Amino acid sequence: MHIDDLSRRIDFLREIDRLKSVIRQSPLLDASRKENSAEHSWHLAMYALVLADYATGAVDITRVMKMLLIHDIVEVDAGDMPIHGASNANQMDLEQQAAARIFGLLPDAANREFSQLWREFEAAESDEAQFAKALDRFQPLLVNVFTQGGTWSENHVRYEQVLERYGPTIQRGAPVLWELAHRWVASHFSVVDVTNAVT
Amino acid sequence: MHIDDLSRRIDFLREIDRLKSVIRQSPLLDASRKENSAEHSWHLAMYALVLADYATGAVDITRVMKMLLIHDIVEVDAGDMPIHGASNANQMDLEQQAAARIFGLLPDAANREFSQLWREFEAAESDEAQFAKALDRFQPLLVNVFTQGGTWSENHVRYEQVLERYGPTIQRGAPVLWELAHRWVASHFSVVDVTNAVT
Ligand SMILES: [Ca+2]
């Protein structure tokens, strides 16, 4: 363990502090403010630990946790891409440059491990990546349901759009979670419809 | 997997959202605001991943990450106890009640696992717990060094007090990190002294 090894690791850990200042669209559950990507990543790692039994296939939960801890680090350079925003063709390029720069702060072996975990998450092919992706969709859905619509209300997102944007990813990685989420969503939108009809 | 199992897990995940509103003494590295305990826990899990080779003994890094992800959850009820604050004799009682209530939201097996991991962290006897404790001291030390003194300046903490409050815990769990930290601290306080002498 050369001193250069340690100082590169420290540089990386200092750099990723900036993830605490990347603001997402989703609010906290008490609606006091928007969530940032660092605390979102903590919460997702907890979702993985607590909901591991609901994954499709026998996932290696350590790899799922690692993926979720690092999945948003590219946002330090590239920013958060909102699920309901206009999609940006350059976003994938930006994120790849960000991964190269930020993981590149680390010594080679660690750089390779993190880059590969991040690419695996993005590719959404392995059981671990599909479960991680499912949780990354399930958590903001839960937040919207329990904050009277959250980003759905803000962005005038309709019932069918929610099914389309969240359903396939959650269904693939964690089907029982989608059963539950689908019921929440149906109930949420029927309440909204009734409210609209009455007022 | 009974429906009651899933709904208890969801209740727990909703409850711990409140950790994002527990504010610590330490600032972010850009000094824009104070850090909260959820993003702090994310950062510590990353410290564990990135600095695993510097642990005393051959630690199981998955258990270290789990410990760090849950170590502050009791603060949802008990609040954060600042390292430089007056120590509160009731704090340990409060934290034990908090652990019983919050982990008790989970199904029995998960409650037992998390409660045991949290007690292991607090006991600071296993190699994993000692490494986790070392990181939990090293991270705020790094923040203070790179924010012109941070909570040390605010609380008029002297060089000898820093050595005493951070040294033994970091030294025990990660001796090479303490070598580095000790140099940072010595350099920080000598710069402060020189500055004081000049102005
Ligand atoms: Ca995400």
Automatic annotation (TrEMBL), chains A, B:
Residues 16-178 form the HD domain. GO terms for cellular component: cytoplasm. Pfam families: HD_3. Gene3D superfamilies: Hypothetical protein af1432. Keywords: Hydrolase, Metal-binding. The keyword Isomerase does not apply. Coiled coil: none annotated. GO terms for molecular function: 5'-deoxynucleotidase activity; metal ion binding. This is HD domain-containing protein. The lineage of its organism: Bacteria, Pseudomonadati, Pseudomonadota, Betaproteobacteria, Burkholderiales.
